Amino acid sequence: MSAHSIEESSAGGSSYPRRTFAIISHPDAGKTTLTEKLLLFGGAIREAGAVKGNKARRHATSDWMEIEKQRGISVTSTVLQFQYRDRRINILDTPGHEDFSEDTYRTLTAADSAVMLIDAAKGVEPQTIKLFEVCRMRGIPIFTFINKLDREGKDPLALLEELEEVLGIRSCPMNWPIGMGQDFRGIYNRTDARFERFTHRNEEVTNIDATDLDSPELVQVLGAELHARLKDEVMLLDIAGDPFDANLVAKGLLTPVFFGSAIANFGVETFLNEFVDLAPGPTPRRTEDGAVVEPGDAGFSGFVFKIQANMNPAHRDRVAFIRVCSGTFSRGMNVTHVRTGKKISLSQPQQFFGQGREIVDEAYPGDILGIFDPGLFRIGDTLCERGSFQFEKLPQFSPEHFARVSVKNTLKYKQFHKGIDQLTEEGAIQVFRQANRTEDLILGAVGQLQFEVFQYRMKAEYGAEVEMFTLPYSFARWLETNVDVEQLNFDRYSNIVVRDQDDRLVILFQTEFAIRWMLERNPDVKLHSTSYGLA
User: Fold this and answer.
1) What is the pLDDT of residues 172-215, one digit of tens each?
2) Cα–Cα nearest to 345, from 375, 385, 390
3) H or E stretch including 360?
4) How far apart are the first and last CA of the chain?
5) In angstroms, rounded to a whole number, what is the distance separating the alpha carbons of residues 381 and 28?
6) Domains in the chain, please, with CATH?
7) Whole-number Å distance between alpha carbons of 118 and 271
């Protein structure tokens, strides 16, 4: 079986091709562990962090916010950049907790591919399904790592079937597990017919040439039963399985599948070596008018996909994260901030490793830059060196939880509104206002834990304690801009009309039944579960 790279361009003139990807998973599938093992193999860290709860002395390298360390969870995306072989790797580490999935949705817009991590015992879980659909919506190639093979789990063939039935994507196993749990013996690499014998942590991996599956050495290591099963399953994959097809992978129709155990550090290096060769380099990006911006196009361009306030609490700074899309970025260059039409100088560009940062002089398509934000940037803003165009807008997704918010101490009114504005701009929450009641703020969040983090950050970062009152709504639906709200026929007692932070009309509904009821009585009205494509 042969495997060829989807793309081998050198990313806009840099000598190092870029691989910019996000890791997506359901909570507790092992995403942080996998991320840090990748960093270990890349030489970026010497010791993986251990997230062990409030009293842990060490925390995951990718978790830098104080509340993340206290709760032992990831609540915001981070950028991790390092060199591996002849590649420049940009990992967009995303929150695993479903309550922070909107941050993940936005981060995926900056990725060229995604690594989908699946727990072998649990299979495809709800959060995985949601994130997979976002990847599909954007046509992002997906690579799958099935984790925790050293524990008892589902049959590998059943897991592949689940990928197709639940997610609707075909799969091509690049390697194959032999045994599971206590009987886990290792993986057979189909690409080079090599058997990697499973060893426990910190033990050296033993490789055996498995070109001849009947080799006495292989039989001796596996035992008769596992050896016979391996032969049968490899034959089945060769005859009935999907072959590797770079074009289908690039279109998101086929996912290469790898097996291993991140916690035991087994199979991760094999995955990384193949992934950096197979994964796409920087991909073209579309503008709002339908034009395509190629990575090799002359002239720097990029877009803001994330804004993070107070990464350095001592300085109360704000950083705008920019995905470089084309051309060569140079420190100090002047670019057009398209939304305002202003010319700005990017004089202090930084690249990141979690909370750590360093000034960079140049960057290329696929790279992620951090730019000091004096309050100018918004998520989705385009920066370009030549001309003036706007990349496609980033979607805003429907919250599932809503609450009214007010400040406890009216003397903290200024800090309260500063915190609301900044946390809204960075996408930590969504803010809605009722018509003729502009001071009555309604917050929207994908998950309840977002509200807890919001309250924590308002107090810790802005000195403003807030009160929140839960509202009964569960859905936000954006209206077409030409709708006359006064003429709409719907239950105005149970559902309300509001405007979002960009002044777009939104209706907050309590139930799906209420949405259907309104659409039946207003057949010409269109409702949208995201703001994507709306003016």
Assistant:
1) 999 999 999 999 999 999 989 999 999 766 666 678 888 888 88
2) 385
3) none
4) 48
5) 33
6) 24-76+99-278 (3.40.50.300), 285-384 (3.40.50.300), 401-528 (3.30.70.3280)
7) 14
